[in-house]
């Protein structure tokens, strides 16, 4: 899925302001150069004038910042370096960690979006890429997960 779509979906889901998006990124990496004025261009669709592509580095820091924002920083661990390449599987993983979703919660989110996944299908999405049962997360799966999360957050469940 396109990084801008992921950023746009999460921002809408959580009803974050542009300033809040910058604050979340700064939680993960205080030295990362991002200004509140940069956010509107990142939220535009690719075919709109003035649209700017969201880099993997920015999305990785935003997702890491969400984990810190919702779960707190683990001071006993050294900070993890941000991933250089973001995949749909990684987005799914980081959102699961940030919102502390258990298997049951994950199933509810997918069912809420009208896209039920069997347990083996879901666990395959969270395996390491070299594992024999690893399954890449397609755009449709991630889109439905984001839709289910949005329904959950925006309706107050």
Structure description:
- The chain folds into two domains: 69 residues; 67 residues.
- With 157 residues, the chain is mostly helical.
- 56% of the residues lie in helices and 0% in strands.
- It is globular, with a radius of gyration of 16 Å.
- It contains eight helices and no strands.
Topology:
Blueprint lengths: L2 H12 L3 H11 L10 H5 L12 H16 L16 H11 L4 H10 L6 H7 L13 H16 L3
Q: What are the salient characteristics of this protein?
A:
157 residues; mainly alpha; 8 helices; 56% helix
Total number of beta strands: 0
How many separate structural domains? 2
Q: Which series of helices and strands comes N to C?
A: HHHHHHHH
Number of helices: 8
Strand composition percent: under 5%
Mean pLDDT: 92
Please give the largest β-sheet: none
Fraction of residues in H or I helices: 55-70%
Radius of gyration: 16 Å
Tell me, briefly, the overall form: globular
What is the end-to-end distance? Answer: 26 Å
Low-confidence stretches: none
Derived structural class: mainly alpha
Quick summary:
This protein is mainly alpha-helical. It contains eight helices and no strands. Helix 1 runs parallel beside helix 8 and helix 4 packs parallel to helix 5.
């Amino acid at each position: 899925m396109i990084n801008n779509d992921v950023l746009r979906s999460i921002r809408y889901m959580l009803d974050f302001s542009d300033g809040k998006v910058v604050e979340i990124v700064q939680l993960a990496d205080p030295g990362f150069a991002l200004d509140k004025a940069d956010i509107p261009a990142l939220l535009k669709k690719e075919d709109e004038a003035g649209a700017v592509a969201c880099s993997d580095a920015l999305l990785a820091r935003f997702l890491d910042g969400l984990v810190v924002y919702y779960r707190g920083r683990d001071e006993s661990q050294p900070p993890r370096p941000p991933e250089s390449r973001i995949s749909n599987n990684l987005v799914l993983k980081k959102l699961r960690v940030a919102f502390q979703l258990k298997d049951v919660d994950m199933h509810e989110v997918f069912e809420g979006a009208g896209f039920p996944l069997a347990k083996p299908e879901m666990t395959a999405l969270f395996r390491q890429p070299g594992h024999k049962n690893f399954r890449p997360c397609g755009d449709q799966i991630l889109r439905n997960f984001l839709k289910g999360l949005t329904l959950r957050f925006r309706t107050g469940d």
